[in-house]
Amino acid sequence: MHELIRISRPSGRTRRFAAKGAAGAVLAACAVATLLLSARAARSQSSLLYLEAQAVGGWSSEEDGAVFYSMTQEDAMQKPGVGFDWLRRLSGERGDFGALALQMRLAWNREPESSLELQVYNAFFKYKAGFADLWIGHDRPAFGLASYLDSHALLLQPLSMHGYGFDRDWGAGIYRDFEWGNAAASLTTGSGMPLELEGNRLAAARVSRGVLARDNYNVGLSGAWGEVLETMGYEIMTPDPVVFRMASLDWTHLWTRYESRLELMAGERAGDETYAVLWRFGMNLLEESRLKLEVQPIFEKRGSESHSIVAAGVSYQLNADLALHSMYRHDEAAGDNMIVAQVYYYKGI
């Protein structure tokens, strides 16, 4: 992946150059080295390492041929690739004090020419401060459904992957779990996957009620405001930051074999009044919910233009390590019908 970085010159002007995941990889490597060499980290006794691999391919009516991605060629999700997911719990004499996470993929792009790109997802240090948990690095902003729904391996994506916030962003955050729910806040660069600093910034906060694992529901109210770069994966789509001021209401409900997720957003994006709504309904079948059927309509209105995206997916868990996913998506604005299949492998090593 070609990550875009801006370097300041004495004249005050900036120039762009391409680097294959340089900023993210360097920052992640520095965090790992610093913590592993520290005396406290050396006493850590718990570490998890997973191998991750996926094959992705399908057909698009807009491209009139085969595609090897689930959204667009520029987006990070989903592409053929292989990587790892590493989590290390950091402990001292008084118990756990934090965790270090690093999740990376080497993905394949077919267009515009065949190439490999380094994708950095999780790359953060989390510290248990007692009054709350703090994180710094590349993690989830406190905004919308994506703040607690991990979609990095899924074909159906929340609004964060449709231009309404970021699935991951560089910065820092704080969150705390309560008996009644959760509260979180973050201050990030507003650039998403690449680490880009050109006056862009994004502040976000979310408060929710309900513990999903206990109450089978969670409803959250969040807001985000700042000036962000409009990106698709590691591609910068706009040269300058644009205004992003959005409010979000998200709701997740689990009932017997059924799952329902709703996300509503409203606000200002790049000078336009913007509204978006997403609803994902799923039904789990077979033993241990190994088969899942889902449908996900999205409606967006930006300024005077509006369009819808309707998707449906089927997932089957072959075993603990291997899953099969498929999706059909109709994008009204692009006039595109897409069918995608994914084989996803995730195994502890």
Classified in CATH, the superfamily is: Porin
* Count of the domains: 1
User: What distance separates the N and C termini?
Assistant: 26 Å
Q: Quickly count the helices.
A: 3
Overall geometry: globular
Low-confidence stretches: 1-25, 31-44
Structural class: mainly beta
Under CATH at level 1, the class stands as Mainly Beta
Q: Which band does the percent of strand residues land in?
A: over 45%
Identify the strand order in the major beta sheet.
3-5-6-7-8-9-10-11-12-15-16-17-18-19-20-21
CATH topology: Porin
What percent of the residues sit in helical stretches (DSSP H or I)? Answer: under 10%
Largest sheet properties: 16 strands, antiparallel, barrel
What is the CATH architecture assignment? Answer: Beta Barrel
Mean pLDDT: 88
Q: What string gives the helices and strands in order? A: EEHHEEEEEEEEEHEEEEEEEEEE
Radius of gyration: 20 Å
Give an overview in words:
- The chain has one domain: Porin, CATH 2.40.160.
- It is globular and about 60 Å long.
- The N terminus is likely disordered.
- It is mainly beta and 349 residues long.
- The protein is 7% helix and 60% strand.
- The strands form three sheets. A 16-stranded antiparallel barrel has the order 3-5-6-7-8-9-10-11-12-15-16-17-18-19-20-21. Strands 1-2 form a two-stranded antiparallel ribbon. Strands 13-14 form a two-stranded antiparallel sheet.
- It has three helices and 21 strands.
